[in-house]
Amino acid sequence: MIIAVDGPAASGKGTIAKALGRHYRLPVLDTGLLYRAVGLAVVKTGGDPDHEADALAACSFNDGVLADPALRSEAIGSLASRVSIHQSVRQALVKRQRDFATQPGGAILDGRDIGTVIAPDADAKIFVTASVHVRAQRRYDDALSHGGRPDMDSLIADIQARDTRDMSRDHAPLRMADGADLLDTSNLTIDAAVQQAIALVDAQLERRRKA
């Protein structure tokens, strides 16, 4: 069983994917970490994330780097969005994602092109979203909880810029996949969002069973 969870930054898709993993007892891959790893590798080697050759060269990272806490920073998130516009980078990371998705027993993947490119035949697809201001507030609260001093205007601008890059790129742009269910978490608690996600997945699985 493959479950695809897509959506923009800070929509809640990562939290929901992990909860679905616990519920269905399936391994979960945050595919955004792959692009963050590329962004981090580019920086460490003194490359330019906007230069396709530099970004592609950084795709040969070891999977062990995915556990690096530095990948979770806002700065690396922005770099991930920048390197992800390169077609060669996306193609280089496709195999890692598909290998994970097709492992025995199935898997859950969250990202921005799971249901459209990586696993278009997934058994269930959810597109998680939330308003820009709600997503910025989540980033603000998270930074505050880690001792940061975030600037709300900067967070909003960064999220809007990332949305624009993700939705307007030529290759695998962010969009809701055919057959996916929309889950807007703007006004939902985490528990409520998770319960709605489970209900949506169960309904999709049931429809496939009866088809």
From TrEMBL:
GO terms for molecular function: kinase activity. ATP binds at residues 7-15. InterPro entries: Cytidylate_kin (IPR003136), Cytidylate_kinase_dom (IPR011994), P-loop_NTPase (IPR027417). Keywords: ATP-binding, Cytoplasm, Kinase, Nucleotide-binding, Transferase. Residues 3-201 form the Cytidylate kinase domain. Its EC number is 2.7.4.25. The keyword Cytoplasm applies. It catalyses: dCMP + ATP = dCDP + ADP; CMP + ATP = CDP + ADP. It comes from the Bacteria. It is found in: Cytoplasm. HAMAP family: Cytidyl_kinase_type1. Belongs to the cytidylate kinase family. Type 1 subfamily. This is Cytidylate kinase. It comes from Sphingobium agri. The lineage of its organism: Bacteria, Pseudomonadati, Pseudomonadota, Alphaproteobacteria, Sphingomonadales. The gene is cmk.
